[in-house]
Amino acid sequence: MSRSVKTPILPYKQEFAKKKGVHEVNYKAICIFAATGFFLDDDTYFKDEVCLRPSHNHFFDKNDFLVKSEPWFHWHYSPRDISFDQALKEYIQLLTTITKEQVGDEPVILPLSGGLDSRSQALIFKDLGNPVNAYSYSFPGGYPEHKISKRIAKVCNFSFNSYKIPQSYLWNCIDDLALLNGCYSEFTHPRQMAVLEELKQMKGVFSLGHWGDVLFDKGAPDTIEEKDIVPLLKKKMLKPGGLEFAQSLWNAWHLDGEFDTYFTSRIESSLSEIKIDNISAKVRAFKTSQWAHRWTTTNLCVFEAARPINLPYYDDRMLEFICTIPEEYLTDRRLQIAHLKQNKALSKITWHEHKPFNLNNYHYNKSPFNLPYRIIHKLKREFNAMVGNPYIQRNFELQLLGTENDEQFQKYIFDSSFLEFVPKEVVNKFYHKFKEVDTVYYSPPVSMLLTLSLWNKHFRNN
Asked: Which end of the chain is flanked by fewer CB atoms within 10 Å, N or C?
């Protein structure tokens, strides 16, 4: 062998390699991408290219073709007989140690949200002594999540910037984004592209809280049995309209069989590699090795285009730690909540997922306790819509709705070269359903059409 590459349990970037074979478009893999928003396993757009799988040693020949890959780590569930307090102590110590090692003495750039992962990081940085520049963003007309972030920054004595994600920002940077992420993610997600130039002006290194919400929660409901895992994963993976869209592409490209049968077989094959009896831990391992690597990781490159990045929850030690913690301690974010409750001020700040409740009273986010907030919030949304300020809560609403957006959008999806790749009848079908049938439900398929059109433009003939 000429060289080898060892990939972490959860890499913070995707690495691609060539293998011997014919350079052909991998239509079946693209159908899964179209349905879910990410590729499975080591799939790419081409049959002779692979994405190096996590936690493997990869071996190359003298011509730099990938010859074989062997796992060096296997996901497992090996819960230790420890108390919750001991697990909590170890978690805080580990998160602190990893964070210190990653950022060193550098100033820190900390994206804050109304959730728990970045708030947990904030509590660690509060006592580390590094200068921290926190920031957040929100949609014009949307829920002002940046106000939650600003309160967190104030408690921790961080400097803070808030940004509004402007309407139609995508068209000014869409080609740059395509070249950054290789079209391995649909384009309406990475909102940070809208403020990339501002991020480049900041000093220091990013500390990103990605994937903590999955690691520190149950992987599957307690009612799920072994026979239910594949249907559960399919339900979680498929985007609205994704199955219909993928089957339309499958038929248009004259692929054998049915898409759903192929998709199911791929999930079953990947799941069989995870030798874990506990269903919740098994689903978490599958999600981490699949869509953490092939979806969440994809757009980390946008942050890295501004400044160096660090991800404490991606660290091998954190992932190995998770394998040894009893599921009951991970369920319902127990460890993170217990950690944050050690700071009374942070625990009293609204938890966005359970707004207007916080970490001390979020259990009341159910009827009838949340009815007053829901009624008032609905009335505000309806009033704002009446006066011309519609409520924005989804990324695609800024990029694909309205006359200006539609004109730009059509230039890409009805481009003559793209229609040689995706037949016009498929494009027309889903564009019509997006415009006339159900805008929300069919937004993922048309967003994926946009992504595929950029791939066709920049990479298909390379």
From this structure: C
Is the predicted pLDDT of residue 395 greater than 80, yes or no?
no
Share of the chain above pLDDT 70, in %: 93
Please give the Cα distance from 118 to 95 (Å, whole number): 12
Q: Is 198 left (phi over 0), alpha (psi -120 to 50) or beta?
A: alpha
Does residue 383 surpass a pLDDT of 50?
no
Which amino acid, residue 294? R
Residue 164 parent element (H or E):
strand 159-164
Q: Pick one of 3.30.70.3280, 3.30.230.10, 3.40.50.620, 3.40.630.30 as the CATH number of 84-216+299-363.
A: 3.40.50.620
Q: How far is the C-alpha of 412 from the C-alpha of 93, rounded, in Å?
A: 50
Question: What is the rounded CA–CA span in Å between residue 412 and residue 272?
Answer: 40
Q: Cα–Cα distance between 205 and 28 in angstroms, integer?
A: 39
With beta carbons less than 8 A apart as the criterion, state whether 230 and 135 touch. no
CA distance 445 to 39: 15
Q: Which amino acid is at 427?
A: V
pLDDT tens, position by position, 326-341: 999 999 999 999 999 9
What pLDDT score does 222 carry? 87
Spatial neighbors of 80 by CB under 8 A, at least 6 apart, are: 324, 325, 326
Q: Which pLDDT belongs to residue 217? A: 95
